[in-house]
Amino acid sequence: MNKQERYKSILYAAEVRFERGEAATWKNKDYEDLSKNIWEKTHVLISTATLKRMFGKVQTKEDYYPQESTLDALMLYADFRPEAKNSDKQFIISTPQILTTDSNSQLLQLVTKHPILQKKYVALLLIVMVMVAAVLYFNKNNPSTPPKTKLSLDKKEGDAPATVFFSIDDISQIQDSVFFDRGDYTAPLYVDREKTKITVYYPNPGVYYTKLFTKKQVISDTVTCVLRTKGWRAYLSDFKRQYQQLFTTIPAGKNKDSAFYVTGNYLYNTLRLDTTKLLVTHLMNIAPTTEDGDNWEANLVFKNPITRPSIICCGSNIEILGSNSKLHFSFAFPGCSFWITSELSEKKLTINDFDFSKFTTDLSEWQNIKIINKNKYITLILNGNIAFEGHYQKPLGNISGLYFHCNGYGSVKSASLKNAQNPKPIFLY
């Protein structure tokens, strides 16, 4: 199977998975829904413009071929698995074998002509039905579970950017395809069954929760990679490629208004950045500590004015990062709760799980956020009103970072995180 054949097969698999009929009949809303579905399953954003080019809605060059990371995300969304055949990697969709009408009619004619065969045929049919039922029952109550695989972080070269070296146990006995989640929202990496080493490049600081998984389940413990910032650091990135490129460093200090923010004039005149693109603002302090990640109080005062009407639903995010897992809360303008997602350690919440209406507010004004964590029970207070209460099970581990990021030119007046038993802040901005 050559490159273009593989490409077309992945598109067909995604088309089948989407269940909206042939791609030739899709409207703009269908492409928006497909982009959202891919994001929800893979945490990889493929724009509607890219999807239209891939599925032929928008005319492209005859040899058009998207980035491999985009195809990887589409493959994962469609459960489109690689298979090895004759030592060459090929991508296939398995289809069941069906008896033809002619075959069935010939069998029935044979049985009806021989009465003795009728009894044997019925008996054989009953035996087959019992065997099928037994197999289905066994599979339901004894699901095939791949062995737990050990994933280890061997060493880090640099902080940010960094090259990180992982090792894995033998996975040759695992029947399903194995993927490596880098923990940075980029497309997962397919892991060759013969490999025991994985090398990853991380362009930016952060806390990355890595793991191995198949399309059915996670098969390793989470291994955390912490790339520290050495104090508060601020960055800008391109919204469409924010996890794949090196962030642009900007001053993290407060200005004359005692707040952190950037202006379009500074970006254009000083940094020579293209301000017509949607940029993402990052403010973070990443540093491993020994502080308990399940008992603390965080406070943040921020705003995120709309720079262009077309990005009104672009939100703001707060993350409290632990050595095992994290909390992630998103906020948006009224009318945009459909796009809000949040994470409470092992729990991933979408609009289908929780009504995020209370997470919407006028972000052009200063917002006061307080998050209280008391033994894994979270209370989130937005501008004096309780917006969320809930608990999680998996411990966060030790506090490893406080991270604010927003789509657009966000501003932060203050940020702090302190242990419930110690008035001295762990992080203070």
Portion in strands: 25-35%
Here the CATH topology of the largest domain equals: Jelly Rolls
Total tally of structural domains: 4
The low-confidence parts are 84-108
How would a textbook summarize the main sheet?
8 strands, antiparallel
The rounded Rg comes to 26 Å
Strands of the largest sheet, in order across it?
11-10-12-21-14-15-16-17
Please estimate the helix content: 10-25%
Write the H/E string, N to C. Answer: HHHHEEHHEEEEEEEEEHEEEEEEEEEEEE
CATH architecture of the largest domain: Sandwich
What is the class of the largest domain in the CATH system?
A: Mainly Beta
Structural class: alpha+beta
Overall description:
The protein is an alpha+beta fold and 429 residues long. It contains seven helices and 23 strands. It has four domains: 89 residues, no CATH class; 40 residues, no CATH class; 77 residues, Immunoglobulin-like (Sandwich); 196 residues, Jelly Rolls. The strands form five sheets. The chain has an eight-stranded antiparallel β-sheet, with no helix packed on it. A hairpin with a 7-residue loop joins β5 and β6. α1 runs parallel beside α4, α2 crosses α3 and α2 packs across α4. It is globular and about 80 Å long.
